[in-house]
Amino acid sequence: MRSELSRISSLLEKYIVSNELILKTMQENITDIKNQIANIKLTNERSHSAMQVKMESLESDLKKLKISSKFAPITLENELILGEQIIQEIQQRKNREKNIVLVGLPEQIASTPEDRLSKDEAKVQFNNNVPLLCNFDSN
User: Fold this and answer.
1) Distance from C-alpha of 3 to C-alpha of 82, rounded to nearest angstrom
2) How far is CA 79 from the centre of its chain?
3) Coiled-coil ranges per the record (predicted)?
4) CA-CA distance, 29 to 21, in Å (whole number)?
5) Domain ranges of the chain
């Protein structure tokens, strides 16, 4: 019976030591988890602050856009006008790409391009000493 008691006592001591080790490990793990949670909270607060600043900046930009859009609302008509203006600009550039520069010839004051052209041609024909600068592309 004594041997039985001593065996039970030994098992009980082993059980207590084992439980103390498990409890110590659990306490260390809990401390680590608390530290990790604290770090996550800190990171979350910093991210939240940064997002708050970014959101305020975006709201400010949105207000500016709303204000500017009140002055020039984007409508289908405005987009068509803008597209037409762009096409006209491209056509004008295409028309002017082979122009020549006449140095020493005064600018003609006429209401239409045809009048200016005819006056320029007449001036060049009667005044042969006007130097010409030309860009003859091989394109």
Assistant:
1) 104
2) 23
3) 23-68
4) 12
5) 1-73, 90-139
Name the DSSP class of 102: E
pLDDT in tens, 46-76: 999 999 999 999 999 998 887 776 666 667 7
Q: What stretches of 1-139 show up as alpha helix (H) in DSSP? A: 2-71, 76-96, 113-126
Q: What is the pLDDT of residue 54?
A: 93
What's the Cα-to-Cα distance from 16 to each of 2, 10, 23, 44, 120, rounded to whole Å? 21, 10, 10, 41, 114
Cβ(137)–Cβ(107) below 8 Å: no
> Taking the mean position of all CA atoms in its chain, how far away is CA 63?
18
Dist. CA 30–CA 33, nearest whole Å? 5
User: How far is Cα 126 from Cα 129, in angstroms, rounded to an integer?
Assistant: 9
